[in-house]
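One such given next:

>
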Amino acid sequence: MSDNPLSTPVHTHPVPMLRVSGTHREIGRQIGEGARSQVQHSVENARSLLSDAYEQLELTWDGAKIQARKYLPFAQERYNQYVDEMAGIAEGANVAFEDIVVLNAMEAVTMDALHLTRCTSMAVNEERTADGHVLAAHNEDWVPEDEDDVFLIYAKPDDEPPFMAMNYGGLLPNVGFNAYGIAQLIDSVYPNDSRIGIPRLVAARAVLSAKTPAEAIRKMLVPHRAAGYNHLLVHESGEIYSVEASARRFDILYALDGYMAHTNHYLTRPMQEIEKDPEELISSRVRYYRANRLLRQNESHTIKTLQAIQKDHTNFSNSICNHAVDVNDPLDREKTINAMVIDLTAREMHIAWGNPCQNSYHTFHLEE
């Protein structure tokens, strides 16, 4: 393999960061204004994606808006503050509110067809690091067209803890950490019991408001959720959980030995029973075993050792550092659009914009 596999995009400057504060509506509006071009571009990308995939999905953008509207009352009833954030994003970015709702319910309205994603999440606690810090790492994989829409959010809500989150386009923030030492990494999973309910992105957004691990888990498992993710939950105390959720079930893995890795398939038996099309998730299993092996080879991890795992190319192009190569199917051409290591002890995020094998990590601090 060459040093730069197939001309991977290189970003010469750090991921842009937005500082936002106030009510949820104000926070959304500030995100929309500050990332207007990214939000508008992500809506255009989503429209194109549905258009390109029409033969498989038979879903138009207008049809997606009709479907997404069914989920809104459930979100409004339980988490209206985050519906306010979506409305604010729409106002600030000068796009239709219905378009933002589609983006945040896209997994549901497409029945997960657009989300055979290849994210990889890992964590190690203070027993497994050289300096006694608690570390979490995540490769975010999605369609190449949205890589330019990546940005960071540093938020100080009036009624919730300050947080820092990676985001792209018009989505609600969800992958990040807060001032109470709670970090959340998300991997898409594919249950067969999905239903109309609270969109999983809305539930994931709520986790960033949690002050304790138990509160975070309750928010992941909110009643009437439409489906579920795997939420890799890390606490500054060194507690690490993988909460595997679906619409009606959940199971929890706990890092007794101080290590945790997860990709895009269920690991526990109760959740495997309801996994949809597991044979389509072979690459997820390969990545999981690879990440797990590399993680456990080291008993004194550092930020650098986790970054090295994030750059791994075994099983290229479906590797941990994932490259969209020679793939014509619009539903199956993701790449790593950013990679981050969160140092919960130091309240820092180290993030590479694009594939970490070719892009530098930059450090951002959460100042409480």
Q: What stands out?
A: The chain has twelve helices and 14 strands. The domain at 17-365 is CATH 3.60.60.10 (Penicillin V Acylase; Chain A).
